[in-house]
Amino acid sequence: MNISKLPEPLRLLPYVGKWCLIASLVAFLAGSASAFFLLSLDLATRTREAHPWLLWLLPAAGFAVGWIYLHTGKSVEAGNNLLIDEIHDPSKVVPLRMAPLVLLGTVVSHLFGASVGREGTAVQMGGALADQLTHVFRLRHEDRRILLMAGISAGFSSVFGTPMAGAIFGLEVLAIGRMRYDAIFPCFVAAIAADQVGLAWGVHHTHYAMTASAPVALWSAAAVIAAGALFGLVGMAFARSTHALSAFMKKHVAYAPLRPAIGGVVVAVAVWACGTHRYIGLGIDVIVEAFRQPLAPWDFLAKGAFTVASLGTGFKGGEVTPLFYIGATLGNALAPLLHLPFPLLAALGFVAVFAGAANTPLASTVMAIELFGADIGPFAALACVVAYLFSGHTGIYRAQRLGLHKRHGLPEQERRQ
């Protein structure tokens, strides 16, 4: 039968069936990997908290992971940026070793006390595992792009328990100002199914209770816009600082394993000097505190410094959970100044700093609704979009391309920043 003669809805059936199958396989692989990763991360965190002396082994741990990557992981060291580059310009299948290497590196980072996140690990595992299906299904370049995007969506969804935000993140993160709608169906199927796979494996995600809000009014909208601008500037500062430190270390420390070893010394000594472990690891407990009570106004600065020191010197992990911490604690500090409830400002900072640093305002807005409820939608949209506008044209992902400038009339020099 000539398929081209069938009505268009019927011609779509093979496409839907094909991507239901492939996206479901991606979801199973990414969701299972994320579940194992989250359980391992929980064990590593509890072990470190029970044995604080492990922090002093952080330099040695950093050196060991750096040595492993130097000898076996050069081809996958770019991490998330490698996946984004392969989507833009497909060349060769992402090596499967990316998944176990980043898993090991991130768990080690958390076990010994680096300040890193988990999104980067889940996304890299999701993308690397998904790309192994390229040969199985003999996919063309265009289909491989979609496959990788589905892997990114599945990894993000399953590690945070936010399937809608995960799907949109995979579509939005590739280029500033543009989205790839040709992958919308596979990304949503993969993200929704991966979240369910994680839940089936017994994964439990942290619940953040936004116990107070404010009416949508002129004064509250103005306050949220002001906060959003600051959230965007902080996200931009975080991204630029991390890139700058990474470039500095690569220029002045030629032997790669020494970079995280030096970073480990800095982090360990800084923790000892501060007398608290509050700013290392994921910091989930502090994020939860930000929704419940006023916190020290410098918490966001300290977490930012510890995270830049960790990621900028080469420790493995993600940026997003530290950005949640920075945003939630910054919002908590801004609440009395803007005369808004601190649970509301903590929630908005949680997503808006990430929106600015990653240039993903839509995914961040949807994430706010998934995590905190539909009532936060208008405020979250304002905060995330304003943060996106104020964060410049750089972000935490170097391979992210500029699809469309954030506003017209920018001077040429500013457009390049």
Automatic annotation (TrEMBL):
Localization of this protein: Membrane
Top-level taxon of the source organism: Bacteria
Transmembrane segments: 16-41, 53-70, 146-171, 183-204, 216-239, 260-280, 337-358, 378-397
Main location: membrane
Keywords: Membrane, Transmembrane, Transmembrane helix
Protein topology in the membrane: Multi-pass membrane protein
CDD domains for the chain: ClC_sycA_like
InterPro entries assigned: Cl-channel_core, ClC, ClC-type_chloride_channel
Full protein name: Voltage-gated chloride channel family protein
Lineage: Bacteria, Pseudomonadati, Pseudomonadota, Betaproteobacteria, Burkholderiales
